[in-house]
Amino acid sequence: MKPAAEKPRMGRVRHFLDIDRFDAGTLRRILDLGHGYKRGERSGEPGPLSGRVLAMIFEKPSTRTRVSFETGMKQLGGDVIILTRSDTQLGRGETIADTARVLSRYVDAIMIRTDDPAKLHELSEYATVPVINGLTDRSHPCQVMADIMTFEERRGPLTGRIVAWSGDGNNVAASWIQASARFGFEMRVACPSTLRPDPAVVEWARSQSATVVVMDDPAAAVAGADLVVTDTWTSMGCEDAGRPAMLRPYQVNEALMAHARPDALFMHCLPAHRGEEVTDAVMDGPQSAVWDEAENRLHVQKGILTWCLL
Ligand code: CP
Ligand code: NVA
Q1: pTM > 0.90: yes or no
Q2: Is-catalytic flag, 20?
C-alpha cells in the first residue's frame, strides 16, 4: 500500500487541464476523435470505456457540462458520479489533496468545475487518475475545443483565420487566447480596460508567436473576422452591478456582426442572456452556431475522455 502522503509520479497520467499544456498535434488528435464520434465512429458494443467511472465535482452550477459529460460517458459504456461541495466532505474541510487520493482509489477519472484554478491543479497533482478541467474562473478548455470543432465542421481549419471576442475578457476568452497559439489564428479581444484578459495569458500566447490584439473598440475587433464570440457579462462568481453599463457597448448585435465577413459565424458558450451580451436576432440568425457548439461539447468531450483513459 502507498504511504498516505505519497504523491503520484508525475507525467504518467493524462490530465486535460488547459490548452496551453498541449502541443498542436495532441489537440488535433483529440478534435479528430470528437469529429469521429460525431460521425458515429467507434460506437460499437461494448463501449470503449465499459466499466469506467468518471466522478464530476461541481462547485458551480452547470447544464451543458454536466449533461454532456454524463451522456458521453454512458455512450462510451461508462458511468458517472456527481459530487458537490455541500454533499461531500469537501464542504466540511477535507482537503482537495486528500479528496484526490481517495477518489483515485474508486474512479477512473475526475472532472472538476470550480472557482480557483489552484484547486484544479492540486487535484491533478494528487490524483493518480486523469483530471479534466470543467471550468475555473480562469479557463474553460472543453468549451473552446467544442467551439473549434464547430468552426471546423462549418468552415474548415481555423489556421490563418480571425477570431473576434467582444465582451468580458473572462475564462472562455482566456482559453480562446491559448488556442490561438496552438491553432494559428489571429485573436482579437475587445473589452473595457478594466475587464481585459489576464496579461499572463496574452503574454504566453505572444511568446508562442500568436497574434493576440487586445483593444477597446468592438467594431475594430470584428472588422473582417471569420468568427465573432461573446459570453455573459457576469460570469459565475463575478457578480458586480457595474458590469452591464461597462459592457453594453460590446453587445453582439446585427450592427456589430455587419463589420465581420459576410460568412462569419457567431458563437456563445451559453447560457446566453438575450438582450444583454447578444440580441435575439444574432442568437437566432443564420450566422449563429450556438446549438452546434452545445452539441459538440458531447462529441469533443468523448474525444477528451478517450484520450485521457485509453
Ligand atoms: N457552456 C457551459 O459550460 O455551460 P454550463 O455552465 O451549462 O455547463
Ligand atoms: N464565463 C461563464 C461561462 C459559463 C459556461 C462563467 O464562468 O460563468
Answers
A1: yes
A2: no
